Amino acid sequence: EFERTFKSMKAANSSDIKDAGKQIHSLLKETNKVLRVSNASADWRCYVEFVNSVVVEGLSTAIMTSLEFLLDQIDPESIRRDGRLPLFEIMLVLDGTDGINFQPPLGHDTKKKGMSDMIDNIVGSFFLIST
To answer: What's the rounded Cα separation, in Å, for the pair 52 and 131?
Structure first.
C-alpha cells in the first residue's frame, strides 16, 4: 500500500517540478525578449545566474524538508510523542527450517524489497527532483 501511494505521489510531484522548470525557462526567455538583451550580455548572465541560485536554493530546501520529514516519520521518539503509527512495519518470522527471518528483510534484497532498498528508493527520489 505504502509503495503504491509513494509511487503515485512521486510521479505527481516530479511532473509538477518539471512543469515549473519549463515555466521558469519560458519566463526567462520572455523576459529576455521583452528587455531585448543579448544572451551574451554580462548583466543578463548575472540575472540568469541569480535565477538559477534561487531555483537551486528552493530545490535544496525541498530535499532537506523531505529528509527531515522522513526522519521524523521513522524516529521512535517522534512517533511515540505524536501518537502516530509507524511508517514501516517489520515482522519477525519464526521459521522451523530457516530460523528467524524479518519480513521485509532488513538489508538489501535481490528483489529490491528489503528495508534498505525501500529507504534508498525514498531518499533517492528526494534527490531526483533536482535532475
So the answer is: 13
- Per the CB < 8 A criterion, the answer to whether 24 and 51 are in contact is yes
Q: How far apart are CA 27 and CA 33, in angstroms?
A: 10
pTM for the complete prediction?
0.75
Rounded distance between C-alpha atoms, residue 110 and residue 54, angstroms: 40
Per-residue pLDDT tens listing for the chain (131 residues): 677 888 888 888 888 888 999 999 999 999 999 999 999 999 999 999 999 999 999 999 999 999 999 999 889 999 999 999 888 889 998 887 778 888 888 888 888 888 999 899 889 988 888 77
Express the helix, strand and coil content of the chain in percent, nearest 5 each: 65, 10, 25
